[in-house]
Amino acid sequence: xxIAFVGKGGSGKTTISALFIRYIASIGxxxxxxxxxxxxxxxxxxxxxxAGRLNPMGAEITRIKEYVRGSNxxxxxSDVMIKTTPPGNxxxxxxxxxxxxxxxxxxxxxxxxxxxxxxxxxxDDLGTKCYHSKTGAVELFLNxxxxxxxxxxxxxxxxxxxxFASGLFTRFDVTFIVVEPTLxxxxxxxxxxxxxxxxxxxxxxxxNKVEGAEDLSFIKDRVGSDxxxxxxxxxxxxxxxxxxxxxxxxxEAENIAALETMLKLVDEQKKDxxxxxxxxxxxxxxxxESWANAQLGTNVVSQIDPAFNxxxxxxxxxxxxxxxxxNKLISEQTSKGKEKxxxxxxxxxx
Length: 350
Ligand SMILES: Nc1ncnc2c1ncn2[C@@H]1O[C@H](COP(=O)(O)OP(=O)(O)OP(=O)(O)O)[C@@H](O)[C@H]1O
Ligand SMILES: [Mg+2]
Description:
This protein is of the alpha/beta class. The chain has a single domain, classed as 3-Layer(aba) Sandwich (Rossmann fold). It has helices at about 15-25, 40-45, 60-70, 100-105, 130-145, 185-195, 210-225, 235-240, 255-265, 275-295, 310-325, and strands at about 1-5, 30-35, 110, 115, 150-155, 175-180, 205-210, 225-230, 330-335, 340-345. The strands form two sheets. It has an eight-stranded mixed β-sheet, with helices on both faces. A two-stranded antiparallel ribbon has the order 9-10. Strand 9 (about 330-335) and strand 10 form a beta hairpin. Helix 1 (about 15-25) crosses helix 9 (about 255-265) and helix 3 runs parallel beside helix 5. The radius of gyration is 20 Å and the shape is globular. About 45% of the residues are buried. The site of magnesium ion (MG) has 5 residues, from helix 1.
């Protein structure tokens, strides 16, 4: 499942995504953490001391392009590939738990978590559109990532409406919007909801820094059925700020309950690969028309492979990838007669 954390600056996106990621890992389930914010704080919040060793994805998007284009005949070189180029027949899809050159280069693994980062601004990027190309690397990666049930990719997103400039915000099964009990924070929620609702984004409100019933109803009254759960002011989080990443068992019971509710909601989502692919194509066409065709001097819409069926490919590739990774693949028929795939082994913990 692909999950995003969005919300106003300072609302607690990084804090809550870090807790959520650690909560998933503590259950023993595979999880990739992606820091897509400009200010890279997620690795630190996860307790990763060597965040400086992370190779930012945005700085070397070509590496990702080269890998995922595989032998797709519609993409003769990475030079004509853009962040929204969708997979087609011959493309390489990426699974959550496999080993591949992308993870080898861009991810650090620790405590059962794979961490990746879009990358911070470099000095000379300021004032240019480079930041979009940095989250573009994340978009490209997610477009080729075939996660299955009980496998998680959690992205800590940049705040603000500029994320709508790309298709990144449509790549998630669930988008958690972290909302503080303030009008400003609710304003960001309203704005996000307005935009995202045109794209069928599943948006759920996670209230944060809630002190008492009044704070809670202040949020609940304004978000209606989008409300999911709430975090109170946390001593544990205050300790995190001091560099002390305590054991998860030390997190307040009410806040653990909130994490549990969030994971349950995620697990209830149904994968819709057709929609996922259709929206990838939609944003690719938008990008083609608005800048890419003119800039590259070629019609990148021809990269869309009409014969490609994402859902079928996902099924076939997941089988292949896991078998080739020497994981044991177990196929079961569900009560509805559908095939369900299980793997006996996640990736090893570092
Ligand atoms: N539940 C909480 N209890 C106490 N402090 C909290 C809580 N949630 C977040 N904070 C504090 O609020 C501040 C902002 O949190 P955080 O950095 O997670 O927000 P953010 O939305 O990721 O911000 P940015 O937009 O800058 O990336 C931090 O100092 C954090 O420790
Ligand atoms: Mg943050």
